[in-house]
Fold Phosphatase PAP2 family protein.
Amino acid sequence: MTNQLIAFLAQYLFLAVLAAAVLAWWRLGRSDKRLFLIYGAVASILALMLAKVASAVYFDPRPFMEHQPSLFYHAPGNGFPSDHAMLSFFMAGLVWRFNRRVGVALLLLAAVVGWSRVAAGVHHAIDIVGGAVIALAAISAVLWLSPRLTTLYQRLARVNETA
C-alpha cells in the first residue's frame, strides 16, 4: 500500500465511519432514532470521561516523538488513547446495537482506521486498543444499564401515579 493511501486513510477514514453511522441512524424508525441518540449521548459522555482518566494515568508518546518518521504532520503529545479509533469504534458499536450487519462492517472499518494510524506512525497499537476498549466499554455499559434504568423509571412512574 502506498504511503499516500495510508496517510489518507489515517486522516480521513474515520469520517466515512461517522457518515455511515449517520446514514444508519437515518434509516431507523422514530423510536429507534430516539434511542440511538440517547444511548449515543450517554455513552459518549462516559467514553470521554474514561478517555480523560486513561490519558492522565498512562502517557504513551507518539511514535514520531521517539525518532520514528510519520507520514503526515501531527502535533506531539500523548497518543493514548487514540481519538480516531475511539470515535470509529464508538460509532460502530452504537450502530451494531441497531443493525448488526452494518455494525460489523463499521467495526471492520474502525479496525482499518486503527491500523492506518499505526502504519502512518502517529500511534502505537496500544493507543488503538485503548481507544477501542474505552469506546466499546462505554457503549456496552449503557446498553447493559438501559433495561435496568427503564424498569426503574417505570416503577417510579407507577409510584407517582398512585401518590
In short: Residues 125-162 form the longest helix (38 residues). The chain has five helices and no strands.
